[in-house]
Design a protein that fits this description.
The protein is an alpha+beta fold. The protein has one domain (2-159). It is built from five helices and seven strands. The strands form two sheets. It has a four-stranded mixed β-sheet with strand order 1-3-2-4. The longest helix is centred in the middle third of the chain and has 16 residues, at 92-107. 21% of the residues are buried. Bound molecules: zinc ion. Zinc ion binds at residues 15, 17-18, 20, 44-45, 47-48.
């Protein structure tokens, strides 16, 4: 299931719209689009982004890192998490994506998992953001432990980040 759910334009370091290649250290926008039950990432140069891109589900700033530098994926994940949690409807693939992002943030110790609560007969995760002590709740999706690792790897590919 996971394999069909996420897709990216692999290895492309060029704008999806005007196809101009990104320069070293150029800042560009990465955006997620919902395509059926899947998400797709596309990258846009600043000019195309400013001209307006439609139907963006969520987005974040990306920078082509110099070779010797490692990009800080924590900001990407944090921005995306904020976008996800402010979305009005977190259903289906969106819900799964929000959950995976929150688990990555827990691994990176940017979110802390508090004891779960039950609401409307359903388990809800309680997540505390360490930076500002803000609390988030997220219904626990139907994902087993075995499904988690492959989904996590797919997420990293989708976002273009390190595991
Ligand atoms: Zn462009």
């Amino acid at each position: 299931m996971a394999q069909q759910e996420w897709s990216i334009e692999k290895g492309r370091k060029a704008c999806s719209k005007c196809e101009t290649a990104f320069a070293s250290e150029e800042v560009y926008m990465s955006a997620l689009f919902e395509v059926g039950e899947a998400f797709e990432r596309r990258n846009f140069c600043a000019n195309c982004w400013a001209a307006g891109i439609e139907n963006v589900f969520s987005y974040w700033r990306t920078q082509i890192a110099r070779k010797e530098e490692k990009r800080d994926d924590r900001q990407t994940l944090t921005d995306l998490f904020d976008n996800m949690m402010s979305a009005t409807e977190l259903e289906g693939p969106r819900h799964k994506l929000a959950f995976l992002i929150s688990m990555s943030l827990v691994r990176k110790r940017l979110l802390r998992l508090e004891p779960s609560i039950w609401r409307d007969g359903r388990e809800h995760l309680v997540l505390l953001r360490t930076a500002d002590q803000r609390q988030f709740t997220l219904p626990h999706p139907e994902i087993t432990e075995e499904e988690l690792q492959p989904l996590h790897e797919e997420l990293c590919k989708l976002l273009g980040i390190e595991v």
